Amino acid sequence: MKPRIITKVELGHFVDGLRKDFQVIGPTRKNSEHILSVIHSSEDLDLKYVTTILPPRKLFLPPVENLCSFSSTGEAILTDIKTQKMLILGIHSCDLNGLLLLDRVFGEDYPYPRYLERRRNSVIVAMTCTSVAETCFCDSMGTGPEPKAGYDILLTDLGERFLVEIGTAEGDRLTGLMRGKEAERSDLELKKKILVEVKAKFKKRIDTDGIAEIFEKKLDHPLWKELADKDLACAQCVMSCPTCFCLDIRDQWSSAPGQTVRCVEWDACFLLEFAEVALGGNFRKERSARLRQFMGHNLSWGGDAQYGPVNGQHKCVGCGRCIRVCPVGIDITKVAKEIRGS
Amino acid sequence: MKDPYLPDCAEIVNVKRQSHDTKTHTVRFVDEARQTEFRPEPGQFIMISAPGLGEAPFSLSSGPERNDCFDTTIRAVGNLTGILDRCVVGTRIGVRGPYGKGWPLEKAKGQDVLIIAGGIGLPPLRPVIKTVQRSRDMFGDLEILYGARTPADEIFVDEYEEWKRIKGTTLSLTVDSVPKGVTWPHKVGNVTALFDDMKTSAEDSVVMTCGPEIMMRFVARGLLARNFRRNQIYVSLERRMKCGMGHCGHCQIGSKFVCRDGPVFDYSELEGLPDLTL
Question: Which domains does chain B possess?
Answer without folding.
Answer: 8-99 (2.40.30.10), 105-270 (3.40.50.80)
